[in-house]
Amino acid sequence: MTDIPVRRALLSVSDKQGLVELGRALAGHGVELVSTGGTAKALRDAGLAVRDVSDLTGFPEMMDGRVKTLHPMIHGGLLAVRDAPEHARAMADHGIGAIDLVVVNLYPFAATVAKGAERDEVIENIDIGGPSMVRSAAKNHHYVAIVTDPTDYPALIAELNDTGGATRLETRRGLAAKAFAATAEYDATIASWFAFADQGQRFPQRLSVPLRRAEELRYGENPHQSAALYLPAGPSTPGIAQARQVQGKALSYNNYNDADAALELIAEFRDAPPTVVIVKHANPCGVASADTVIEAYRAALACDSVSAFGGIIAVNRPLDGPTAEAITALFTEVVVAPDADEGARAAFARKKNLRLLLCGSLPDAARAGLAMKSIAGGMLLQSRDNGAIVRADLKCVTQRAPTDRELADCLFAWTVAKHVKSNAIVYARDGATAGIGAGQMNRLESARIAAWKARDAAAKAGWAAPKTIGSAVASDAFFPFADGLLAAVEAGATAVIQPGGSIRDEEVIAAADEAGLAMLFTGMRHFRH
Questions:
Q1: Reduced 3-state DSSP string for 240-288
Q2: How far is CA 15 from CA 23, 129, 459, in A?
Q3: Which bin fits 500, alpha (ψ -120 to 50), beta or left (φ > 0)?
């Protein structure tokens, strides 16, 4: 028998959304309603007849409601295999009635944590009886339907109407799978709170990560790969996954990845003057700060207009119409901004495939968190790179100290280099990138590529000289030899910022002194693989 008539339903929910409508539908099919506490009151207030759980168990709710459904009269009615003779005898001998439908959603643990509740209140919002009923009903789904999500009520009501008050096996199987996922997520959220918030562990011995699928994507990095977007089950910080898409095609896996890289970089400039970031294949190809957003966009684009084609643009200010018009002159995949005015939206609307993402606020670049990466057979976890430096952290190691302009450009280039794939070299001048070398197997090649791209940009723009002349250059890790530094000198750099720490630091410092450079050590590395 695959269709099971629903004769008795047990309802116990913290979320009362849709409860009364469901109760009325069940009553309309002659279903006996059994309930607890606030759920029973809500149903009675709607004029529905309800039996208290204590009527079935013979025991009152006790211990502040901690003990009410943990009883053989409940779990026997949920777990009994209806066509097993010994189970049927046990039910008859002990007066246990079958329960055909369970509707449960759990104490709001995550919401309690999110509102900043004290520890005792958080602990009290760990549901015990609810998950036990959910798991019992889900295990016995051949006979019992378990509903844990109010959004499933309409489909359940429709099925009851279609079958004359029964549930189908296929439905019960699907609901059981969803129920086990719900209890797993619930337990994972509790375990995470205990590990991180309560115990202060950085890397707990066991780590469960509760995630919910937001959408399936068209494909992954390549068309033969499948992909999906998942979101944290509980509260989350502002991010690209939480941004509101105003227009354009659905985002692809690569769009999300590149837009995230752009947002993480622009977040470094959250409190800076108007700044624009242009990203291609998760690497910045142009970054600039200026007095206005449109000036910043033009300066960022000038760094590498070839790579910017089909790229991702992120800004740290609301977008205006003129800037949007300028952006639409070049094919752009995604634009990320805190907001956009009517003129900007109208300009973007003429490019129907361009995705416009409004994030409201930028994430805090200094926030803590974990970064995860899958490897064959396991996962790597690390604290996210929220390291930053201020002027007081810098150590000048050369005979010449940087000028104020050089110092500002050093810090700007260093901020960008943090978000460039290693080996990373970034030239910057006057608050804009002049050349970016990314992802090379040696630092010398990154320095040469960045300089070459700067020369190419100058030729394309008709400038007399590349903007690396008089620039500051940042290296994400130390120069292992003087050759990378000398390549920067050849490109016209006059100041250098790097972590230091090489066994050949003295050789590199001597080369900088001989070239008349100012060089700063940060003592912090920013590998990005």
A1: HHHCEEEECCCCCHHHHHHHHHHHHHHHCCCCCCCEEEEEECCEEEEEE
A2: 14, 16, 64
A3: left
Q: Which residue has the tokens 């800004």?
A: 315
Whether the CB-CB separation of 32 and 51 falls below 8 Å is answered with yes
Contact 325, 303 (CB under 8 A): no
Smallest CA-to-CA distance from 294 within 329, 272, 325 is with: 325
- Is residue 139 part of the annotated active site? The answer reads yes
Residue recorded with tokens 């309560």: 198
Instruction: Please state, in angstroms and as integers, the Cα–Cα distance from residue 326 to each residue in 118, 298, 348, 458, following that order.
Output: 51, 8, 10, 20
Per residue in 354-413, pLDDT (tens digit) is: 999 999 999 999 999 999 999 999 999 999 999 999 999 999 999 999 999 999 999 999
Integer Cα distance of 334 and 358 in angstroms: 11
> Quick check: 59 pLDDT over 80?
no
Which is the catalytic residue, given 71, 178, 281, 351? 281
Whole-number Å distance between alpha carbons of 364 and 270? 8
User: What would you report as the CA-atom Rg of the chain, rounded to the nearest whole angstrom?
Assistant: 31
Amino acid at 504: R
Please write the tens of the pLDDT for every residue from 127-148. 888 898 899 999 999 999 999 9
Give mean pLDDT, residues 155-172.
96
Residue at 399: amino acid letter: Q
pLDDT digits (tens, 9 = 90+) for 472-491: 999 999 999 999 999 999 99
Contact 316, 266 (CB under 8 A): yes
CA angle 346, 286, 324 (to 5 degrees): 10
pLDDT at 74: 79
> Are 12 and 104 a contacting pair, CB within 8 Å?
yes
**Which residue is catalytic, options 29, 71, 87, 139?**
139
How far is Cα of residue 66 from the mean position of the Cα atoms in its chain? Answer: 35
**DSSP H or E segment with residue 187:** helix 169-192
Name, in order, each residue with C-beta under 8 angstroms of 313's C-beta and a sequence gap of 6 or more: 262, 276, 277, 278, 279, 297, 327, 332, 334, 335, 336
Q: Which domains does the chain have, with CATH numbers?
A: 4-198 (3.40.50.1380), 244-358 (3.40.140.20), 392-521 (3.40.140.20)
